[in-house]
Specification:
Structural class: mainly alpha
Number of strands: 0
GO molecular function: DNA binding
Number of domains: 2
Shape: elongated
CATH architecture of the largest domain: Orthogonal Bundle
Protein name: Transcriptional regulator
Strand content: under 5%
Largest sheet: none
Number of helices: 7
CATH class of the largest domain: Mainly Alpha
CATH topology of the largest domain: 434 Repressor (Amino-terminal Domain)
CATH superfamily of the largest domain: lambda repressor-like DNA-binding domains
Order of helices and strands: HHHHHHH
Keywords: Coiled coil
Organism: Phyllobacterium myrsinacearum
InterPro entries: Cro/C1-type_HTH, Lambda_DNA-bd_dom_sf
Length: about 130
């Protein structure tokens, strides 16, 4: 019953089906071609759906929702589980953190190489 009351009381996403489809695909960092392969249609068909020139059939809606991690009701009506757009932000933060760690390791490695080169020079001079 709680799920039903959430659908009834939730503020709907007022975008079109095509707009929601496009946003969900972007949130998954998926190209039009990749989504087309997943649901078995040409990229042109996905583009037509995203631009609201046509709409997917029920079977494709189920495939789209599953591929994009959203509910069919969100795609159709804008109510239900929408894409978690914070996933992309979290992934971006993780990548930036990993880059910072690699840069620190790179600096440390450079310092260690310099120390070893100095030690080799000292040994040659002795």
């Amino acid at each position: 019953m709680n799920f039903i009351s959430n659908i009834i009381t939730a503020m709907p996403d007022t975008d079109t089906l095509g707009g929601r489809l496009s946003r969900a695909r972007d949130a998954k960092s998926m190209s039009v071609a990749e989504l087309g392969v997943r649901v078995g249609v040409k990229p042109e068909t996905i583009a037509a759906w995203e631009s609201d020139r046509s709409e997917p059939g029920v079977n494709r809606l189920f495939m789209l929702a599953g591929s994009l991690g959203v509910t069919q009701t969100w795609l159709i009506h804008g109510v239900g589980q929408s894409p978690d757009e914070s996933d992309a932000a979290d992934e971006n933060r993780l990548l930036k953190s990993q880059i910072a760690n690699l840069k620190a390791l790179h600096r440390e490695l450079g310092e260690r190489i310099e120390e070893l080169e100095k030690a080799v020079l000292r040994l040659k001079a002795a």
